[in-house]
Specification:
This protein has 197 residues and is mainly beta. It contains no helices and 20 strands. The relative contact order is 0.25.
Length: 197
């Protein structure tokens, strides 16, 4: 039996009240923090052509799958064509690329290859030191849930919290994550679930 404890501070009527929820389930996934590699800073230099110029030493390579972050925006799952510091982006989903001269951060997607049934979830928690994107997919590469987490942010769903399970009826095959900051950090994706039986 696996357990998790979620602590938070609730403000009710101007008074701050500590709140703790203790959960248990038969299985757990991803309780060790993932490394959140730093993204690369750049600027949109040609919006119609989906062209971004990155700083020297960016580390993005040809045909990488990348996410692009900017203030108030995020575009995910694009294919990068790289010529030195100029990256041309194709495909993807999310927000349209911003105007020329907009500062951006580009990061290659990383993958967590774990599968489970969404209906069996007891807890889904995502905690990030830096801004990041975590996206859950099924086996046909259909996006099931996208989380744009702010630096120091937290997404939590647990059974009995009063909100619908965001992955109900879905079968998760894997998740991707990327960093929207030029400083590395940690990402913790914690999942508790019950078995089919």
């Amino acid at each position: 039996m696996k357990t998790a404890s979620i602590s938070s501070m609730l403000t009710v009527g101007g008074e701050t009240i500590p709140s703790t929820v203790n959960l248990s389930a038969e299985g757990a996934i991803g309780q060790e923090p993932e490394e959140l590699p730093a993204g690369s800073a750049g600027t949109v230099t040609d919006n119609p052509s989906s062209e971004v110029t990155l700083d020297e030493g960016h580390g993005i390579t040809d045909q990488d799958t990348v996410d692009l972050f900017w203030a108030g925006g995020l575009r995910r799952g694009m294919t990068a064509t790289v010529v030195e510091n100029v990256v041309t982006l194709a495909g993807g989903a999310g927000d349209s690329l911003p105007a020329d001269s907009t500062p951006v951060v580009m990061c290659t997607q990383q993958t967590i290859d774990k599968d489970y049934l969404g209906d069996l979830l007891v807890l889904l928690a995502v905690i990030a030191m830096r801004r990041c994107c975590v996206e859950f997919f099924d086996a046909s590469d259909t996006s099931l849930l996208v989380l744009d987490i702010t630096a120091g942010g937290l997404f939590v769903w647990y059974d009995g919290c009063g909100f619908d399970n965001p992955l109900a009826t879905k079968t998760v095959a894997y998740a991707t994550f990327s960093c929207g900051d030029t400083t590395a950090g940690k990402l913790n994706v914690e999942i508790l679930y019950n078995s089919v039986s």
